[in-house]
Design brief:
heterodimer, A: about 260 residues, mainly alpha, MetI-like fold, about 0% strand, B: about 240 residues, alpha/beta, Rossmann fold, 2 domains, 4-stranded antiparallel β-sheet, 9 helices, about 35% helix, membrane (chain A), PhnE/PtxC (chain A), cell membrane (chain A), transmembrane helix (chain A), transport (chain A)
Amino acid sequence: MAEVSIPRFQRRSLPEWLGFVVVAALVISSIAATAPELGALGRGIDRLFAPSGLLAQMFPPDPSRVDRIAWKLLETLQMAVAGAALGLIFAVPFAILATDRLSPHPAVRLVARGIIALFRTIPDLVWAIFFIIMVGLGPAAGVLAIMVDKIGFAGRFFAEAMEEADTGPQDALRAIGASRLGIIFSAVFPACLPSFTATSLFALEKAVRGSAALGLVGAGGIGVDLKVAFDLFNYDEALTIILMLFALVLIVEQGSGWIRSKLI
Amino acid sequence: MVSVSGLAKDFNGNPVLRGLDFAVAAGVATALIGANGSGKSTALKCLIRLVEPSAGRVEMLGQHVAGLGARDLRRFRSQVGVVWQKHNLVPRLSALSNVVHGVQARMAGPRAWFQSLAPETVREEALACLARVGLEAKALQRVDSLSGGQQQRVAIARVLMQRPAIVLADEPDASLDPQSGEEVMRLLSGLARQDGLTLLFISHRMEHTLEFSDRILGLQGGRIVMDRATASTDAAQLRRFFEE
């Protein structure tokens, strides 16, 4: 047998070691600065499970206001559907303008990409506060917040899907003198349909989960009721809301998963 | 029909075409041959400015191609059918939808984008084009479920739908098995003759070059080094253009 010595580990360069040390220092200092102390965490867990603790007060869930919660859940779902639908519709033109091959000018592409990045990086809760100031408390602010968030989310993925689409059919249509819109509708959209569908369904799932939290800042939906229940120490009612919200999210996720499997 | 003089193209300083001079007469089938990397595809793309030439003059269908603005270039391209090495169809759509797309050469708007919205006359013409390539029975079948040869025939039907004056074909037989490749070339050549179309095609198969062309242009080192009638050419004279 030939005696070949293969090193078990790769030799790392000094910059690689320095990078490793910087990352490790960042993680450790972040945990030290912000993570709970073990003692405090232990005491918190004790309080949670104590006879008069949070869990004891949550169980059994209070079913007395199920009908009102159901209506608010419907409003939450409507907010999510409306916000996601509007966001997905507006994401398409932004995505087209942000795509290398389809944008009419590099400056337009840069602006479109900037707007998508801005919409994506600012959290939906911040957008909700912004729109509450603009249109007042209630579901309208929530719908607008979800819409802007989804333009950022779907705009990016739609643009990526269009960038990755096979350019052959587009070139073939360009060669026969088809218009830019003709190429987009005839060649790009059909090629991107599976990706667009998957992104849209993920956007809807994300919107349903997000819309519950938007109520915490007053942007409508079930979140308002959840906050009030916690503020008034009605933990059993809060548990009912959480369980019903969980069921709604589960139904939407299962439904969108089924649709994805049928369409793609 | 086509007149090319001094056509040159370089990519980042690397010359691919070094001044092509040739002419293609109306109604004639011309083969453009040359070894891999000799610039055949680039030359074809330069004719309709899918690749912008670095220098030279192309006159085609009575127009000076380099001087066309965006709108006029689109109008000019609508008269030129292109059959690609890879069929370049939209895979998720039906054969009929892909053929209907050919009408975008002379019609804009959603009625040219979707077969479901297309006027009845357009649908009937698209079906007639599919019938000419023998695929009317597959009209509503997704093109990605068809064989390679059938997909190339759908691409030819799309070109017919365009009602072009000239057809450029970039190795339409290259990605097909020998039998399908020959069928596609025979179909393309036959349809061009029936409709009196000018055909300029690239082929990497000597037997197709000899069988389906009236004239042969040999490209070597970015220049046309042979231009002769097919009838007066034999295989020995062509061999060097097909050597790797």
